[in-house]
Amino acid sequence: QVQLVESGGGLVQPGGSLRLSCAASGSIFSFAAMGWYRQAPGKQRELVARFTISGIINYADSVKGRFTISRDNAKNTVYLQMNSLKPEDTAVYYCYALWGMDYWGKGTLVTVSS
Question: Is the pLDDT of residue 55 over 90?
Fold first, then answer.
């Protein structure tokens, strides 16, 4: 059983930055994949960024060059640094892990608005 707890969401103006954190109850080094998805109102959940166990990092085209995913294995934590935020980045951001099955956090709301 894996528990994922997100933090760091909030309200930010366009062009601003936020850093999301996801603390996992297990050793993230052993996860097959871990990362971030988001779901905007009225839209399907979509991939934002993720690590795979092979070391590959995937980013959605819409966030490339603006968002950076990173990890601290010692703290079992994954981060998402979000820069140059746009109103269309407004969504609930979910932490995700794959370890035999899919695990999801409860989500953290990011609102980009002036």
Answer: no
